Amino acid sequence: MNTSMMTKILLAFSGLIAVGVGIGVLFLPHAFHASAGISVGDDVNLLNELRSPGAMILLAGAVILVGAFRSRLTVVALILSTAVYLSFGLSRIVSVVADGIPNAAMLQILGLELFIGGMSALLLYAVRGQNLRVLQQA
Q1: pLDDT band at 133, cuts 50/70/90?
Q2: What is residue 129's predicted lDDT score, i.e. its pLDDT?
Q3: How large is the average pLDDT for residues 103-125?
Q4: I want to staple 81 with a disulfide (CB 3.0 to 4.6 A). Which of 14, 35, 38, 53 is the partner?
Q5: Cα–Cα distance for residue pair 90/106, rounded to 1 Å
Q6: How far, in Å, CA of 19 to CA of 63, rounded?
Q7: How many separate helices (H) and strands (E) can be counted in the chain?
Q8: Rounded to an integer, what distance in angstroms lies between the CA atom of residue 14 and that of residue 82?
Q9: CA 5 from centroid of its chain's CA atoms
Q10: 41-73 tens-digit pLDDT
Q11: What secondary structure, in 3-state letters, does 48-94 show?
């Protein structure tokens, strides 16, 4: 499988997950967090805090998803996918160090975020290298 196809698949997967997470966080916070074993309750301040990144994650996911189909946005989508997923994954590692080990669902999410972010970074490196070679040949 070539880099272009792997990039499209990763961006589609990454974008769909982020769109789904954004929708869940923004519009269905109780059900979304319950799926990971977290009871949110009815604290208005907590709900406000939990919903706050929802639109940003949804928008980032939409841009990443479009980048899977529009070659002009591929590099931007890979940068965004790298930044979003690695920032969440690395933040969870800080939480593990500071707060202790969470449940299995949260650890699986951490692993998925680091995997998607890492793959995005690797493909970004590969795609940017290909683009530089094309420019040098011109």
Answers
A1: low
A2: 76
A3: 97
A4: 14
A5: 13
A6: 10
A7: 6, 0
A8: 10
A9: 19
A10: 999 999 999 999 999 999 999 999 999 999 999
A11: HHHHCCHHHHHHHHHHHHHHCCCHHHHHHHHHHHHHHHHHHHHHHHH
- Whole-angstrom Cα distance, residue 82 to residue 77? 8
Instruction: Give yes or no for a contact between 67 and 4, defined as CB atoms under 8 angstroms apart.
Output: no
In 3-state terms, what secondary structure has residue 9? Answer: helix
Q: How far apart are CA 83 and CA 61, in angstroms?
A: 12
107-116 residues labelled b (16+ CB within 10 A) or e (exposed): eebbeebbeb
Q: How far apart are the first and last CA of the chain?
A: 26
Residue with structure tokens 């290298």? 129
Q: Mind listing the pLDDT tens digit for each residue in 89-107?
A: 999 999 999 999 999 999 9
Give the tokens for residue 93.
């590692």
Using the Cα atoms of residue 20, residue 24, residue 25 and residue 27 in order, give the sign of their dihedral: positive
Examine the pLDDT at 135 and tell me if it is beyond 70.
no
Contact predicate 96/80, CB 8 Å: no
- Per the CB < 8 A criterion, the answer to whether 82 and 71 are in contact is no
